[in-house]
Amino acid sequence: MKIKHAESKDFSLKKGKTKKIKTNKTTFRKIMDFFIFIFTAAVLGYGLVTFVVQTVDVIGPSMEPSYHDGDVVVINKLIYLFSDVKRNDVVAVKRMENDDYFDIKRVVALPGDEVSVASGKLLVNGKLASDEYLNGDILNKGILSSPVKLGKDEYFVLGDNTSSSEDSRYQSYGMVQKTDIRGKVVYVLKEK
User: Fold this and answer.
1) N or C: which end of the chain has fewer CB within 10 A?
2) pTM for this structure?
3) Mean pLDDT of the chain
4) Which sequence positions are flagged as catalytic?
């Protein structure tokens, strides 16, 4: 019986050593899992901001009363990969060389539409367009003194506050190409 007891002691010593090594491996594994989690979160966060959503500061009064100077809005960058731009969508328009700057404007006419202004009112395809978003009559017609026909992939955008908005009415701004539309405003994150 003494021999069996000695073997039993030897077995328990081996078990103790194995347990200690497993503990070190478990601690190392937990540290590695933590770093993998942080790396994955950083990659997903970067991807989310780069490809899916972005915050944009509203600058100036051109979108009042819908959005005010100082508001922060969230744009969905993927939406137009899966759906068409629709009339009255509020969009982020890329118009300058700086990648950090977007104009926030409302789409009032789509490709193929004819746009004009008569008696201060917006006409699309000869019919009175909904003016529920426009803040007053359009006093400055700009290029809309005569009807303008939009081409393929061209959109006509206006600021809701037409008396204080640089938009498609002006030659320097012009029609917006679909490639210039970087996303749709989907949420107001911070109101002024």
Assistant:
1) N
2) 0.75
3) 84
4) 62, 105
